[in-house]
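2024-03-11 09:14:02 INFO worker-7 job=invfold-0412 stage=load source=structure_tokens
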């Protein structure tokens, strides 16, 4: 589908397509045309010109998200293009903005915002190389340190030291880039480019290192904190974190698997959980909370009732919730505000069907994303599910992988899903009749791919035909066998794999040592 371009944008494209001529002409370009030329250069992946535009940026702010989003001149949103050529040119241009002495413009730049860049699965850039969040963290840290070395070693214009630019970024730190990022944050006060961490994600990091670096990020500015894979944060560590650091602006919190385990609770643990709930209540901006794969049976109310702001996003997948937890959610003040809900890993039809549908009914006016993976939803439950989903007219995304549903039940469900006007994305399971007879759910990873692929393709085509016949080409339907795309995991999967192998090896060694002691 062709995107409309204004005459201004067509002219800008023609101008930037001759990069050499455009670079020579920058000093005579009106300031208000820089944003237009930047988007046109980004679209055509003119790296050298992007560098020069940033190096000579004449405006007070440089906001990547706003520069690349839908504009009057060109309606396509380019903010999901994490093109390595373009992004590296932007960042090196920023470094050279500081070093560029004979700039034709007075240096006015005060804020650079890199947080609007979106990492997505499918890239359309010609170079086919992406620069993800981890690589952006790495490059910005490296450039800040290089800049400091350069300023120390060369005779610089005294005005260079007066430059102070806040660079807003979503940091992503793992063991591999930890030392570099720490050095950049420690020397932030001396560097003209000030790293301002708006969002922080940590994977594959020792707990001690996480506690050290999170303090360096200036937690008072943090909007989003994600502690995800292989950071061994448990409840007692979380209490220490909240007691020692305040997060007044935090809007979104993701905790790693097994942060909570109420099955081995003592009276001290109960008090600890109460304290954590109270600390969450002090975060008056908090609207998104993810705590998957923790065991929270009977404790949801204790954690969520102190919150003063209603949650818009809640992920309690595989948290062993009981009827009391579901009843609390269905009747809490959060329910009328929930835009995204993940209840995967709970046997909803058998344990609390009526309470769940009450929850759906109460959140139906705002609910945009619903995830019910591995919930034991069977053919006999489809009519009930359709009834529950019918009021959810704003639903944009529905994921229900891992449920034992037949081809016939999926067709019935898809016929209904066509009626949800806002729906854009559906993740559906491999039909049960494509697997060998006697398969048990939830299906283990070893058996997940052992289905009749030809039969599955046939069913998938039929489901897409149902969408097409209802004029719903706008709905994307897929079966990502091993879960939805995670840009951060994709970017660091080699490190993640190495960390898992190391952890497994350490566990085997401990086990062997124990056996030797016993014998």
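2024-03-11 09:14:09 INFO worker-7 stage=emit residues=519
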């Amino acid at each position: 589908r062709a995107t409309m371009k204004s005459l201004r944008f067509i002219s800008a494209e023609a101008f930037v397509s001759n990069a050499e001529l455009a670079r020579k002409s920058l000093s005579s370009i009106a300031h208000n045309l820089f944003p237009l030329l930047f988007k046109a250069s980004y679209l055509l992946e003119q790296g050298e010109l992007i560098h020069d535009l940033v190096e000579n940026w004449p405006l007070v702010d440089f906001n990547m998200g706003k520069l690349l989003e839908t504009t009057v001149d060109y309606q396509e949103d380019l903010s999901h293009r994490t093109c390595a050529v373009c992004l590296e040119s932007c960042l090196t241009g920023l470094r050279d903005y500081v070093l560029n002495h004979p700039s034709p413009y007075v240096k006015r730049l005060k804020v650079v915002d890199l947080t609007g860049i979106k990492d997505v699965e499918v890239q359309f850039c010609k170079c086919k190389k992406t620069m993800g969040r981890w690589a952006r963290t790495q490059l910005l840290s490296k450039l800040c340190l290089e800049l400091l070395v350069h300023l120390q070693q060369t005779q610089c214009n005294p005005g260079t030291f007066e430059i102070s630019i806040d660079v807003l970024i979503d940091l992503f730190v793992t063991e591999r880039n930890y030392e570099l990022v720490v050095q950049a944050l420690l020397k932030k006060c001396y560097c003209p480019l000030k790293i301002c961490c708006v969002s922080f994600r940590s994977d594959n990091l020792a707990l001690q290192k996480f506690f050290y670096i999170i303090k360096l990020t200036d937690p008072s500015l943090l909007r989003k904190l994600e502690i995800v894979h292989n950071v061994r944060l448990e409840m007692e560590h979380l209490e220490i974190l909240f007691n020692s650091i305040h997060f007044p602006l935090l809007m979104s919190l993701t905790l790693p698997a097994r942060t909570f385990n109420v099955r081995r609770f003592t009276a001290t643990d109960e008090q600890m959980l109460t304290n954590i709930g109270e600390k969450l209540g002090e975060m008056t901006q908090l609207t998104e909370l993810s705590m998957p794969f923790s065991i929270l049976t009977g404790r949801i109310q204790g954690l969520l009732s102190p919150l003063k702001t209603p949650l818009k996003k809640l992920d309690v997948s595989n948290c062993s919730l009981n009827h009391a937890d579901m009843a609390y959610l269905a009747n809490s003040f959060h329910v009328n505000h929930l835009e995204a809900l993940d209840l995967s890993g709970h046997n909803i039809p058998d344990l609390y069907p009526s309470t769940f549908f009450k929850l759906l009914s109460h959140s139906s006016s705002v609910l945009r994303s619903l995830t019910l993976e591995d919930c034991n939803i069977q053919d006999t439950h489809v009519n009930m599910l359709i009834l529950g989903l019918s009021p959810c007219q704003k639903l944009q995304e529905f994921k229900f992988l891992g449920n034992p549903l037949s081809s016939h039940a999926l067709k019935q469900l898809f016929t209904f899903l066509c009626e949800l006007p806002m729906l854009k994305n559906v993740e559906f399971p491999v039909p049960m009749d494509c697997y060998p007879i006697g398969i048990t759910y939830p299906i283990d990873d070893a058996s997940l791919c052992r289905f009749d692929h030809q039969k599955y393709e046939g069913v998938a085509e039929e489901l897409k035909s149902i969408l097409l016949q209802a004029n719903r080409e706008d709905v994307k339907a897929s079966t990502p066998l091993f879960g939805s795309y995670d840009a951060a995991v994709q970017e660091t999967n080699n490190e993640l794999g190495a960390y898992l192998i190391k952890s497994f090896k350490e566990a085997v060694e401990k086990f062997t040592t124990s056996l030797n002691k016993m014998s």
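2024-03-11 09:14:09 INFO worker-7 stage=report msg="The first helix runs from residue 7 to 17."
2024-03-11 09:14:10 INFO worker-7 job finished
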